[in-house]
Amino acid sequence: MTNMKLESHALLIDGKWLQPAKGGSIPMIDPCNGQPFAYIADGGAEDIDRAVRAAQAALDGAWGKTPASERGRILQRWGRLIEQHLEELAQIESRDTGKPIAAGRADILATARYFEFYGGAADKLHGQVIPFLDGYTVNVLREPHGVTGHIIPWNYPAQQYARTVAAALAVGNAAVVKPSEDACLSTLKISELALEAGLPAGALNVVTGLGETAGAALTAHPGVNFISFTGSPEVGQLVQQAAARNHIACTLELGGKSPQIVFADADLDKALPVVVKAIVQHAGQTCSAGSRLLVQQEIYDDFVARLADLFRKTRVGTPEMNLDCGPLMNATQRDKVVAFVKRAVDSGVPLLAQGALAEGLHSGGYWVPPALFGPVPRNHALACEELFGPVLSAIPFKDEADAIELANSTEYGLVAAVWTANGARQQRVSKQLRCGQVFINCYGAGGGVELPFGGMKKSGHGREKGFLALEHMTTTKTVVNFHG
Ligand code: NAD
Predict the structure, then answer these.
(1) Of all protein residues, whose CA lies closest to atom 21 belonging to ligand 1?
(2) Mind listing the pLDDT tens digit of every residue in the chain (484 residues)?
(3) 253 is catalytic
């Protein structure tokens, strides 16, 4: 890994790197040792106000006049610059989040791909002409919201930044970003590259800071016309309340308790490693982690025994060790998961297998070995609540109807997988699942840049990724022209 010194990072407002109005900084903690390794600026309400004004000025000025094709070119150039800085950005991302370096590289490639995709889409979102009464021409124009606010979490900082900001800028919004105070150094580096790519000043502004100060100020600001939020359901609710007070729309990408449904006729050899990866990847700190495993009862014992063998082989380590996963993000997250595991064991849920920590890890890191529990009682917290840790709950089911009922039984509805060789069942089950994405005989899709993504129920609403995101990032205006 790069030997970084304790750098201090500033805010990006109106194309310039500025110190926060009130001063102050926040340490960035390395999750592999619990030590600070950099500082970010502690931005607040005044900085958010400066950023929102700069964004509005950009819309009234150069950025607002930039043709769609040129916006697209800028985004594509930006994506290429990200690719050229792949190794540097991957090191930053892995250091910030603790994830294996291979995962950091994959995240940065997906990040670049968002800019390529939305750069290509920038001039392809068209309005409509509606046939109306004789003597009329009716055009439905697609217009940007204006100033968009983006609140980003810490688990996939670069990708989550890219997917929301690239879509917003592609259609001509000006963005104000509040990244996570836990991990945001890739956001700052990628934003620097935006200026190099030729993005006009003010089109993109980044205010680092705490959620309850900078984040809350962004959601409350009357100059913001749309909010995109990814994070916890609790904060999502606050964001939606703030948006309602300003009568603006928002998209909420919240958590999940996503089921993997394995029927007896599935190709179990294919399913096993995918089921492990879906929960162990980034130590379970993925909103779409496959954290519930529903297995048809006639194969339950065999499947879970084989899975336990794979879990025992999982290894946790530093980014450079490049093992199955790294540490949890912070002490709070680690303590939450460890307490959950202990409560589950104390309440008698069988702990079938645990992975191991690599040798020689720093004792101050937030290490938690992957764990497999089963059978987990259906109403146990382990079966219903999102942990955001590498913990898988296995639950047997009887038949198709039982599997669907069980899959839909939590408050969440983000992603699900159906493992079966029966084509009719693949269709029947995916139709009845209450969630935003269903995978059949696979799970996850890398970045899944082209694929609309988002939840139902407590997992949120609105869609990011794919072309559909551009519809959320725009509004329409119907122009009725009477010409006789
Ligand atoms: P969080 O919701 O606390 O933070 C997400 C973002 O919201 C951060 O940038 C934070 O600064 C900001 N924020 C916090 N309070 C705010 C407020 N009052 N107003 C505006 N913005 C505010 O999530 P977290 O602490 O990053 O993670 C906690 C939990 O969130 C996890 O355990 C997990 O369940 C969930 N999570 C989900 C996703 C996802 O992709 N769906 C990602 C990360 C975390």
Answers:
(1) 215
(2) 444 457 889 999 999 999 999 999 999 999 999 999 999 999 999 999 999 999 999 999 999 999 999 999 999 999 999 999 999 999 999 999 999 999 999 999 999 999 999 999 999 999 999 999 999 999 999 999 999 999 999 999 999 999 999 999 999 999 999 999 999 999 999 999 999 999 999 999 999 999 999 999 999 999 999 999 999 999 999 999 999 999 999 999 999 999 999 999 999 999 999 999 999 999 999 999 999 999 999 999 999 999 999 999 999 999 999 999 999 999 999 999 999 999 999 999 999 999 999 999 999 999 999 999 999 999 999 999 999 999 999 999 999 999 999 999 999 999 999 999 999 999 999 999 999 999 999 998 767 899 999 999 999 999 999 999 999 999 999 999 999 8
(3) yes
**Whether the CB of 278 sits within 6 Å of ligand 1:** no
The alpha carbon of 321 and the centre of ligand 1 are apart by a number of angstroms equal to 28
CA of 152, closest atom in ligand 1: 9
Take residue 33 and report the two structure tokens written for it: 């040792």
In this structure, the answer to whether residues 91 and 175 fall within a common structural domain is: yes
What's 464's DSSP letter? B
286 ligand 1 Cβ < 6 A: no
Task: Kindly give, in sequence order, each residue whose CB lies less than 8 Å from that of residue 6, ignoring residues fewer than 6 positions away.
Answer: 36, 37, 38, 39
The verdict on residue 3 lying in a domain is no
For ligand 1, atom 20, name the residue with the nearest CA: 215
Q: Look up the CATH number of the domain holding residue 368.
A: 3.40.309.10
> Is the C-beta atom of 250 inside 6 A of ligand 1?
no
Ligand 1 within 6 A of CB of 232 = yes
Helix, coil or strand: residue 5: coil
287 is catalytic: yes
* Full-model pTM: 0.96
Residue where the block lists tokens 């619990």? 34
State the CATH number of the domain containing residue 88.
3.40.605.10
- Boundaries of domain holding 195: 8-254+462-479
Sequence-distant (6+) residues with CB within 8 A of 234 are none
Which tokens hold the place of 464? 């990011």
Whose Cα sits closest to atom 32 in ligand 1?
388
Contact assessment for residue 307 and residue 299, using Cβ atoms and an 8 Å cutoff: no
Strand positions, DSSP E, 42-78: none
Q: Is 212 in the pocket of ligand 1 (CB under 6 A)?
A: yes
One domain for residues 174 and 297:
no
Q: Which atom of ligand 1 is nearest to the CA of 386?
A: 34
